[in-house]
């Protein structure tokens, strides 16, 4: 049998850090990557075979870009799905499928999908306006989420009591019961056209208190085997019910009573899987590539306990990025720095991440804290 | 302290697979890489910041290329060292230093360097011509090596008895006593401007019987601790006596009496270190980058026993490369395929490599053999 993966061009809509890490994997398989991004200096700019500069939400731009590729995928959900649908109709492979991207673009549809498919999730009500939220004050404490265009912590507002109600969104969104969870975990699953379905071991996420971004991640999650198996089962159930090809990150709450509730899903490589580059036998980026290109899926076993720390732009600094304090970290065993090639830093912008490997889980947490305190992105 | 590695441009003379794997590491540090290569379709072509097409042995080409960089390194020894010397004089950082590259370009000078510096090596005599070799027939069995331009198995001839004498080289070279060795091992050492000096654990090489190329590599080498420590001591001694900055691969024989003899050295990432990408905490490619850029050197500990198999072009096939039999290997745990992006295959051309990780050393050898038998590069 001839393996002709290398004869196919993979187009990625979006050229940020996720695309960049996919390219780092694709180099090993001689797969030519074309990138579309609105930023001339996108992280993928210099390491892809072909770079197109254009708007991801514009039909003509996305369609023209896709025509030059054999397989098309995304690294961000906010893209023109009509163009992707047309490309799929014309015989291009588009993974994740356009209708799934459209579903995930709207958190309201996402929640309804869970409900219709018996996927456990927090109770919710759809709201069309601020007035609608106010009228449902008895549903608090809750999280008010914008239906569309929330990203990286934007479009999410916790409403603990009526005093918070003035923060409610005016646009269509939803109110979700605030879950007094024990842990937040994530499971990444992937599925290819040949029906293979593989899950990564669950990881545990710790969020930044104000920026609503993953601040630390630990693998494996400190949960019981039963909860771990249940989380994998739920994540597999989601990708099967979506009938999706590609990689899907499923973020879940573990409630204090041990219940699993799906929080959010992302049909692409995800922040909760960055550690897999060094910590697992197959990285999420390679797995994504394998899934969309129709290659066999790889083994997802964890090689060593790992932590991941996002390197966010320091609050108060905007401008040409300067990384401080890397030297100490570089000397340590098992510390892996990834900078994303973004010229400009802004408060809380994702500028890079660090993976820490360490057999001893206590030492792992201490090292992760130390890395977070020593490496700073300023301007 | 500000870490300004990212503000420096690294130029690599040569854009083959070694440069390609350096770039894969450099992406993590936002280091811009410029490449010079005579092949328009060199493996680094599409993944570097700037690609110059030109002859590596031409003074003007190398000089002009180097002027646009801050730090200059090599991935092949056959380069114009006069241009590099001029660049160093003008304040560019050139690592390895030009005089070391020149020394290593000539195996005769290399051997004399060992002798003058008490570095253990096989006995030898310099020969200027075929007639010279014939006149020294009593030195057989020996290896006849060309002084210059031997590479990837070319320029080396085993002369077991007088019957082999017609294979002797006509050009200046040397005759080296044929060593009835127990094992061939290699130690990669690296050294930066700050005086840091770090060794990778010794590995064991098994050569292809006719092509004189590494066919299998195993890490760790199956040698005693004493021999391992001695090998590291010898390798460190070589880089110190060369006063070299960068990464140096030291290939050695372990004789049946347990003696260590230096065979060849290479002042760049080397085939005997490819497994380090997945098997060690720091890869040789990242270590090379760290050493030449003046970054702290990384921990070289082995994470897991590893084997490495070169994917050589099948004998009898020349033309557009087609990889066969990848699927089975991709399904297995701990198998990592690296293709080098070379369009054209030729018999025994290095087209890629596979690293195999496995705790059980016996299983490791079996898996390495299986990979070698299943993945084929044809045309």
Summary of the model, kept short:
Two copies of one chain form a homodimer. The first copy, chain A, has 379 residues and is α+β, with helices and mostly antiparallel strands. The first copy, chain A, folds into three domains: 5-94, Rossmann fold; 123-177, ATP-grasp fold, A domain (Dna Ligase, domain 1, 2-Layer Sandwich); 181-378, D-amino Acid Aminotransferase, Chain A, domain 1.
General description of the model:
Two copies of one chain form a homodimer. In chain A, about 25% of the residues lie in helices and about 30% in strands. Chain A is of the alpha+beta class. The first copy, chain A, has three domains: about 5-95, 3-Layer(aba) Sandwich (Rossmann fold), CATH 3.40.50.20; about 125-175, Dna Ligase, domain 1 (2-Layer Sandwich); about 180-379, ATP-grasp fold, B domain (D-amino Acid Aminotransferase, Chain A, domain 1), CATH 3.30.470. In chain A, the strands form five sheets. In chain A, strands 10, 11, 12, 13, 14, 15, 16, 19 and 21 form a nine-stranded antiparallel beta sheet that branches. In chain A, strands 3-2-1-4-5 form a five-stranded parallel beta sheet, sandwiched between helices. In chain A, strand 12 and strand 13 (about 215-220) form a beta hairpin. The radius of gyration of chain A is 20 Å and the shape is globular.
